[in-house]
Structure prediction request, 212 residues.
Amino acid sequence: MKYQAVIFDLDGVICHTDKYHYQAWKEIADELGIEFNEMINNRLRGVSRMESFEIILEKYNGEMSEEEKIHYTTKKNEVYKKLLKNMSEKDLTAEVKSTLEGLREYGLKLAIGSSSKNAGFILERLGLGNFFDAVSDGNNITNSKPDPEVFLKAAEFVGEKPEDCLVVEDAKAGLEAAIAGKMDCAAIGDAVACGMGTYNLKSFADLLEVVS
Ligand code: B16
Ligand code: MG
Prediction:
């Protein structure tokens, strides 16, 4: 095997929560009278909650205090968490499930490296609460992607050197983070267009070939 471990981004790689992020941010944007659309939502991929709100506020005419920012991001998260309850094992595709099982059969350690503070909750909804060898997420980092911290912590949690880990990412900030951490990375979805991945995946199952 080329690697000892694979570190997966969560949103956009293992599952798709974009529509819930969109609905929750839309509710906040509407309350504040800020224009918000799918294009702006796409810029929030892989970016932390507060940084996402700063991007949304680019369209806000006015000043907002830190207290207000905390109020609105907390409110967004409450709406988002209610929406996440709609998720279930049905949201884990057969392709993702069988590929994860195949990678495990290869003897690879499998970890999550996500900016989300809701990663544990999402994994439980998907029926993956106990599946991964380690979960590094928004709760154990101080610097979010493109800083490599979340992936370096994931490598540390599984006891492997960064150069022995492959990162799988759907966002440019995530590819930058992997590269900054001296890790190879497989781009999937929108991230393919950046041309920054060590590999470009057409489909999640391509991972089975990439690692061997
Ligand atoms: P939360 P990932 C990221 O997850 C999402 O892509 C991004 O849209 C979101 O703002 C971020 O998590 C923080 O999420 O508000 O749940 O803490 O792609 O890094 O798995
Ligand atoms: Mg992502």
Q: What stands out?
A: The radius of gyration is 17 Å. Residues 18-84 form a domain with the DNA polymerase; domain 1 fold (CATH 1.10.150.240). Residues 9, 11-13, 45-46, 170-171, 174 surround magnesium ion (ligand 2) (CB under 6 Å). The chain is about 40% helix and 10% strand.
